[in-house]
Known about the structure:
- By secondary structure, this protein is mainly alpha-helical.
- The protein is built from 20 helices and no strands.
- It has a domain at about 270-365.
- α7 runs antiparallel to α8 and α15 runs antiparallel to α16 (about 290-295).
Amino acid sequence: MEKNFGEEPRREEESQQVPVPEVREKSQEDRVLDWFDKIKAAEINVDIDKIKEMFSTDEPAQHRTIEREKKEKKRYKLMDIAQCMAGLDSDRAWKMREELLGEGVPEGWIVIGLAGVDSDRAWEMREKLVEKKPTFKGSKFYEFGHVAESLIGLDSEQAWEMREKLIGKNPRAVAESLIGLDSEQAWEMREKIKTLAWKDKREYHVGSVELEDFGTSVAHGIAYSLSGLDSDRAWQMREEIAQAASADRRAVYHWLDKWTPAELDVGGVAGLDSERAWELREKWLRNGDTGRVAGSLAGVDSDRAWEMRERFLKEGMPGFAVSSLVLDSDRAWQMIERIEKEYPRFVAIGSINNSTDLGIKMAKKNK
Length: 367
């Protein structure tokens, strides 16, 4: 072999290749938490011109109103973030929950965001809220509901024991906790709650829901639990509870013409891409119920669903576009980035990474 006299001989350690640090792909959890950090840090926008117009000659009142609105908007923003932490159980997620508590977010909203979290830490927080003394008349109804909602995405023995414990306290919330569950145990509990809603409602009426509307309220909870379920059994239950709720409603609201067809449908088609689900969406669109359509598109990844999301954006409705997303795809995140650029003052959190998303994913997993 010919020697190259024009170069200094390379030492062995110099000839070794320097290792390139591995670039870890950002997890879905990190992606969501990064987005929440960004939203937390975003400036709170209020309509200053409108406030100045309302208090044109009173500068102190302008200042007080601006500060009050900013404080209120920040509070709701943080509450939205708290309830949208479903399935997040990392140290970083718990640190964010602690920060939100420190910033005044009610404990119940933190608990709602524990949907899908089955750790000891999560159960300790649920049990604490169940045992908490009432702070005002009817407060336990809501707190029991928050705990029940946090059971979405959980099929463990401990979760079922808690559902049984709460079924007579807030049956609608317990019904909602069944979203995505297609087991015989889940169906038996839906039937039990249906009985409570109509046959035994005077015994089980609780909280602030008017007795006359109790059945209708629980009907919506049962329907919500059917999201992601497209079986004949699920559609039969949708029809049964819609008819029962309509009859219940007519018995109370006597001004409804008894010959008018029952128009009260209870939905529960989120995550479904079947023709029956789209027939309902078309009906809602004709009735101007665009928000309901948007919510029902959560978890639907078909071209037809994406065309509807594009329609929302084209018609200047970014909130509906956001509420129709489940953020587990690059396409969804690309739409979020578009919305941030096209609507820089817009912030919509309430339907992102929440328990509905979790339940729909569970329904798909259980197919």
